[in-house]
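ok so i was messing around last nite and threw this chain in just to see what happens. nothing serious, just curious
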Amino acid sequence: MEIEINERLKQLNGMLCEIDSLYQALLSAKNISDSEFVVIIAILSLGEGCLQKDIANNGYINKKTTNSTIKKLEKNGLITLKAGKYPNMHIYLTSLGIKHIKNNILPVIELEDKVLNSMSEDEFERLIIGSSKYIGIFKDHVANFIIRER
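result:
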């Protein structure tokens, strides 16, 4: 069976795979899993006391992955959970978690900032506009695809 893949799709997939590979190398150098990075970034974005469901929604990872990552972070002493209105558990960083962020997460954020600061405002704006347009169109097509498949 021979399937023709459009050049534009090859370019996009190649670029996305390369970005993913670069993140894998970067996080591996700091001994951080993808899910740990996403969950910690979500906690930093949402603020301490956030909920697991908010992390799953903010971090663009599923609830099961969020839950297992939170359990791992808690087991490793990086976060603590405090009861809120049942059944909600609020998430807080421990002193060890803050140290971990300073030593392992912050350098990644700084590297990302350095990359973005290497782009002109116009380049960055075009990147955001083009990516946003692609994601919006893709979301619509995925939603329609799912409806047809059901």
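not much to say yet. The CA atoms of residues 14 and 53 lie 32 Å apart.
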